[in-house]
Design a protein that fits this description.
The structure is a homodimer of 463-residue chains. Chain A is of the alpha+beta class and 463 residues long. Chain A has two domains: 162 residues, Creatine Amidinohydrolase, Chain A, domain 1, CATH 3.40.350.10; 292 residues, Creatinase/methionine aminopeptidase superfamily (Creatine Amidinohydrolase). The first copy, chain A, contains 17 helices and 18 strands. The longest helix of chain A has 24 residues. Chain A is globular, with a radius of gyration of 24 Å. In chain A, 52% of the residues are buried. At the A-B interface, β2, β3, α3, α6 and α10 of A face β2, β3, α3, α6 and α10 of B. The structure holds manganese (II) ion (2 copies). The site of one manganese (II) ion has 5 residues of chain B, from loops. Chains A, B: It catalyses: Release of any N-terminal amino acid, including proline, that is linked to proline, even from a dipeptide or tripeptide. Chains A, B: Belongs to the peptidase M24B family. Chains A, B: Pfam families: AMP_N, Peptidase_M24. Chains A, B: InterPro entries: Aminopep_P_N (IPR007865), Creatin/AminoP/Spt16_N (IPR029149), Creatinase/aminopeptidase-like (IPR036005), Pept_M24 (IPR000994), X-Pro_dipept-like (IPR052433).
Amino acid sequence: MFGKETYIRRRAELKKLVGNGVILLFGNNEAPANYPANAYSPFRQDSSFLYFFGQHRDGLVGVIDVDNDTETLIGDDIDIEDIVWFGSVDSVSNLASQVGVAKSGPMKELKSICNEALRLHRKVHFLPPYRFDTMIQIMDLLGTHPSQQREAASLELIKAVVKMRSTKEAQEVEAIERACEVGYQMHTKAMLTAKPGVTERFVGGIVDGTARSLASKVSFATIFSQHGEIMHGCPSAAPLEAGRLALCDAGCELDDYCSDHTRTYPVTGKFTQRQLDIYKIVEECHDYALKVARPGVRWYDVHMDICRLMTERLKELGLMKGDTEEAVRAGAHAMFLPHGLGHMMGMDVHDMEGLGQQYVGFDEETQPSTQFGTNCLRLGRRLEENFVVTDEPGIYFIPALIDDWRSKGHCEEYLNFELLDTYKDFGGIRIEDDLLITKDGCRFLGKNRIPYHPADVEEFMAK
Amino acid sequence: MFGKETYIRRRAELKKLVGNGVILLFGNNEAPANYPANAYSPFRQDSSFLYFFGQHRDGLVGVIDVDNDTETLIGDDIDIEDIVWFGSVDSVSNLASQVGVAKSGPMKELKSICNEALRLHRKVHFLPPYRFDTMIQIMDLLGTHPSQQREAASLELIKAVVKMRSTKEAQEVEAIERACEVGYQMHTKAMLTAKPGVTERFVGGIVDGTARSLASKVSFATIFSQHGEIMHGCPSAAPLEAGRLALCDAGCELDDYCSDHTRTYPVTGKFTQRQLDIYKIVEECHDYALKVARPGVRWYDVHMDICRLMTERLKELGLMKGDTEEAVRAGAHAMFLPHGLGHMMGMDVHDMEGLGQQYVGFDEETQPSTQFGTNCLRLGRRLEENFVVTDEPGIYFIPALIDDWRSKGHCEEYLNFELLDTYKDFGGIRIEDDLLITKDGCRFLGKNRIPYHPADVEEFMAK
Ligand SMILES: [Mn+2]
Ligand SMILES: [Mn+2]
């Protein structure tokens, strides 16, 4: 939690941006895993609630009445039996005053507030819900069925929150730097643990445990896999095999901010020439983004530049063919790179993704693409100072996709399916870092760089 | 997953026990943490769904039409874009045949099945839901508001499921043994990591990481705390302090079955005399339960025996006073032991808790108590062969509870508040093991015993 003046200032700006009505910011509740009292842990507060109300307890709702300029923290106090089980907790009224909120009230007051607002036909703003308990709460408060709530969410509120959360404050950047430091520990431990015979799951557990020991938790399900070609591959019980690459995509949440890095390295600690040929293309794409990212540059253009660069290099290896511009226009490169170059990062690892990609990553000038591959680009619009974005190109050899396109003849004029077939056992490579957009360029976040140049990787893994 | 004959046999027995109507067993869906695509991980399937349908994919529902003797696995197949992100997955029809289910169908078929059953006024059985998305699903299928669903759940189905899941099959016991082995690793690593200056969170991360590396996940949020008096204390950022006790309550899930152990040990590896005086009482209570647990014995009676034994010993230390029987009848012992002696364990760490404590742990003969402390006893009824239960007495010094009772004069004739006040810095002690009820007694589960006799603990921690 930051100082209370932070939250007071943010809410004041939010009121100005939204202009009128009643804003409801729902905090999260415990999320039962396999029965009501056994919740997923640790508790994850809603990021926008945290941004404006700063408190980590479950069962809270922030209410901002813009027209009457009042703020209320809603939540029920806990009793002695709860204290025995969960320890002492501040009263809701104390939680409110800690973040500069004047009023507080029990959950039943929220029903009165909503009834009154509905009676007076006032606008009630809420963000698109993603927790199903919140959907039931909104249904009971406002009468909107869960299936209608994403549409009923307030565009004014979404746009205001995106505007504010996109540009990171200095104290937020510091928090991300700390998270990246733990990310360094997670990744370098994995690099030193990975060797032939050790299971993917064992290494994944080391990564997860490090996040739990040094931060709060992982920022998303850790990917540690010899099958890097599966974008979201869970660590399996399979032992690592000499000759394969291991891909580790992992990050942590620390003090409410995330890290997100990917490294790919040989299980033996030594690249083969075939691996190196592909790796160097990914490395070049990764470093290109670093070189050009600065305020005013469209991330969509950088993504497309990288698609062209990758196509050029894959043509040199004989995996692609034909005119580069035409190949990229047809989306042929998506055989290798079926995802986007990067995304916003902050309190959420894909920052604000739940508010809608079209509002977070795009604007009137830059619209999302519908083409396979580029449709997964989560950020397209022009970069601004103090954006935090990921730079994460990759090249994958996905047997099911090779077979699918080949059987349809999709992009056959740009792809060498014969040669592609011999890469079905290759896996995938991704290199990902977190960048802060500065006044006239960008810089890596995190004091220590996780090794990624091939020579550095081999040297580090020889330890 | 066990062999398909297991699931065929179980569903046949379930049909016999429930007798008529249509049974819906909802599998779980992904549970979003902070936006729709960022789910808590790993995915946790519903235990009763697993017990009867054995499959781990999200988005499945098992339908058993008892009257027409048909079984259907409901779920939507995934497409090529999903395969790119998550890898290949069996079709729903294959998933069905792997567990001996003849029919399968897409999710929209479930709506037709329910509409048809409602039209014919047939009984539709479902278990009390605990996932809010399942509640919305039930509301949309059957028209019951989430707040009414616990009451609308089928008592026949609950009782049948409890009857079957309470008695563990040999293959289930083997799975629990394997989980207990990982529990041994988790706890002994914590014992060897704990020392003055190391943070609670650091040790907790080691415990969690070990569960992730060697099993699937923790079976509940790991408790690792110098404040053992907080029943569900999260590991904090505080460093361990010489002179204090650390309490570790942790278990894992492996192959769908749980472990759950608690150990309490001195941060320095050496007990003080004051700690030993309390520890030996907990140890004696723990070992007493071991001695008497056998088929036919009421767990409620064992719990009360232990309350009396604890009261006797606390009187010897001067912390309690007066007549033992009267003290226990008044619930004075709950100052020290505000929870129950143990609970069922199986696929859920508190097995089947979501189905309702009154059906799982109690019966006509033995009803739940409403008295503070004993109301937290989750199991009271007579033990049967192949029950798996935990044995977990504890003694805690809870400052807020001491102050609360003292201010009210509650049980003052049985408590020495003067002396209690000097124990406010003590913390709490719990010793927990998992027992299999055998033909004529019980035995520990897990090949290796986590040290708990004081001399063994000190010897182990000196390593
Ligand atoms: Mn990323
Ligand atoms: Mn337990």
